[in-house]
Amino acid sequence: MKLVIGNLKMNLNQKEIEEYIAFFKNKKYSHAFFAPTYIYLKEFVDNGLNTVSQDISPYSKGAYTGDVSANQLKSMGINYSIVGHSERRKNYADGMLVNEKLKRLLENDINPILCIGEAFEERNNNTYLNVIKEEIDEAFKNIDTNKLKCVIIAYEPIWSISTSGTGIVPTNEQISEISSFIKDYVQDKYSYTPKVLYGGSVNNINVDTLEEIGNIDGYLVGGCSLKIKEFNELIEKVK
Length: 239
Ligand code: PEP
Hints:
The protein is built from eleven helices and eight strands. It is an alpha/beta fold. The radius of gyration is 17 Å and the shape is globular.
């Protein structure tokens, strides 16, 4: 089963979220997941939706004002969290924290959705495979390989993200190349074959083309996940 994960980012107010939940709770999609801001997580969980955190603290507990711990998320029924999203890497220098965050998630039996992906110039100067390797190695550093098996990898080329990049979607061949590369690299070095999601300007229209890619395991969706009808159509098209 492929996964579709909607990353709502810092969008939708209380009234809009209620409308959103009211629509999706009746659909009972087992393959659709929702990542709202922290303040709405409980409403998603209580309404039976597959709920994903957008991030997590690198610390376990204590005096870290504004942070939310993996243990707190787990205790409210959250089993998935995004980690290393390019917006966090860029805006908060999160690249250095990804390894610690991954450890906190794994300690608490939360499945990480690790975001990796190259910038436009790294694609153009042909260093993108190295960037992918380095991001995986940095994230997986000093973690027992037996614990890594639940880590899902989201390949999100920074240049294809709708709001911070060019919004250009890579070709199916480009996505397929990276997905195979990630699966082989992680299998060789860390002894498991991860699920690989594609993220970057996916919508209810271009998903028809993306669905022809044979070796991806789903999508991480930003902008389109904010529009109820469009996101619902996208979810229904993913098999
Ligand atoms: C994202 O930021 O994770 C993302 C995939 O965004 P968008 O779909 O808007 O490009």
